[in-house]
Specification:
By secondary structure, this protein is of the alpha+beta class. Helices cover 24% and strands 34% of the residues. Strand 5, helix 3 and strand 6 form a beta-alpha-beta unit. The radius of gyration is 25 Å and the shape is elongated.
Length: 166
C-alpha cells in the first residue's frame, strides 16, 4: 500500500488494517519462530494550515514472540506504537531539524521526509521496530524461586585454619 505522504496528510486521509506479524519480515528477522500474531495498525494524516505543517499519526499494536534475556525462554510481548511524525520536504530539512533537536533548541518531534511513494506498511513496521526492546525480559521468569541453590562446598582454605590451632 503506497501513498503520497504530503497529499495524504493535507487531505486528512486515514487508513487502517491488520497484518500478520510474520509478514513483517524486518521486524521478525531476529525473533523466535513461530510469529503467529496479528498487528492492528492505523495511519492518519493531518495538515495545520497556519503553520503549513503536515503530520502523520501512526498507531499499531499486537503481539510478537521474543526471547527473555534473563531465562532464555520465549514469551509473547505486546508492542504498542503511538507516534506523530512531522513531514519535511527534503533530507536537508530533516538534518536541520535533527541538529536543532540535538542542540536542545528544537522540539522533540520526529520528522520524516515526505515521500510521494510512501510504503504505509513499511512505515508501520519501522515504528514497531523502534519500540521493540533491545533486551526483552519477563516481569517474573517462570520457575523463579523454584530453583534450589547449588550446594555449598567448604572452602579449601578452611583446612589451613585447623593447622594453626594445634
Amino acid at each position: 500500500m503506497v501513498i503520497d505522504a504530503t497529499g495524504f496528510a493535507r487531505a486528512g486521509g486515514a487508513l487502517d488494517g491488520r497484518v500478520l506479524t510474520a509478514q513483517l519480515t524486518r521486524l521478525c528477522q531476529d525473533l523466535p519462530e513461530p510469529q503467529d500474531g496479528e498487528i492492528r495498525w492505523q495511519v492518519r494524516g493531518r495538515f495545520d494550515a497556519p503553520s503549513g505543517q503536515s503530520w502523520l499519526d501512526v498507531e499499531a499494536d499486537g503481539p510478537v514472540r521474543v526471547m527473555c534475556q534473563r531465562c532464555l525462554g520465549a514469551f509473547s510481548l505486546t508492542l504498542r506504537v503511538s507516534s506523530t511524525l512531522g513531514l519535511v520536504e527534503t533530507q536537508a530539512q530533516l538534518e536541520a531539524m535533527d541538529a536543532l533537536e540535538a542542540e536542545g533548541q528544537g522540539p522533540e518531534i520526529e520528522y520524516l521526509v515526505a515521500d510521494p511513494r510512501l510504503d504505509v506498511l513499511g512505515l508501520v513496521e519501522d515504528e514497531l521496530i523502534l519500540v521493540l526492546p533491545y533486551a526483552p525480559r519477563h516481569e517474573v521468569c517462570p520457575g523463579d524461586g523454584d530453583v534450589p541453590e547449588p550446594p555449598r562446598r567448604p572452602s579449601p582454605f578452611a583446612v589451613l585454619g585447623r593447622f594453626g590451632k594445634d
